[in-house]
Amino acid sequence: MNKLIITCAISGAEVMKEHNPYVPYTVDEMVREAREAVDAGAAIIHLHARFDDGTPTQDKARYETIIKAIRKACPDVIIQPSTGGAVGMSREERMQVTELPIEMATLDCGTLNFGGDAIFINTENDIKYFAKTMKERNIFPELECFEKGHIDMVLNLHKKGFIHAPLHFSFVLGVNGGMRGEARDFHFLRESLPPSATFSVAGIGRYEFRLAELAIHHGGHVRVGLEDNIYLEKGVLAEGNKALVKKVVAMANEANRCVATPKEARQLLGIKEFDHENIL
Fold it and tell me: Which end of the chain has fewer CB within 10 Å, C or N?
């Protein structure tokens, strides 16, 4: 079986220090959490920028500062900024980070109810715009799908030439308003992909490690991190992102599946060779 790519979502836009004190806000905290996650086995750092008070931001300058600092501490890691941002941000605001020389970013592939009156809006035209811009800027998109209809949207836009191969999906399951994270949901989505596609799974809250185990055994990849889940096990707060990554590495070892380095992750996904001179 191919090697396992572990993504660590170190910060998110919603989780706060009141939920888990290890959630990073400052640049130094972001570097600490990224470095420890990479040392534990993560090949990709999924990044939401925060200001020092914890406010989520898509500000290009803030992203640049954080990315440069993480890159200095972890020269080879794949840094994957979010273009999802936070609920209520405009298309242009969310896409600021793609003006930076980055190699990978997320591309959300459908609209979702996030609870109450919060709606995470991704229209068909939004998706086309994001995909076109990333293509023009040589940014590899991870196709975030919260339910089956989002996969169908990707495949339809791929057929029409708006989204290009190689296709790498991320199933984000267990979000309020999206698909749950039961085994049936995982298999339904996995079996909906074309044979050439790759996928990763991000389970929210209690679904995180259940889905990680399924992905490990079925050839997929795994995302963990404080953005998605603040607990190492029921009632036990994770002491940083490294604890969550270490748990997945232990699961992979038990299944006799090797963990990919950042270089190997690029090869598996089809990302162009890392260019130290041109990427932050």
Answer: N
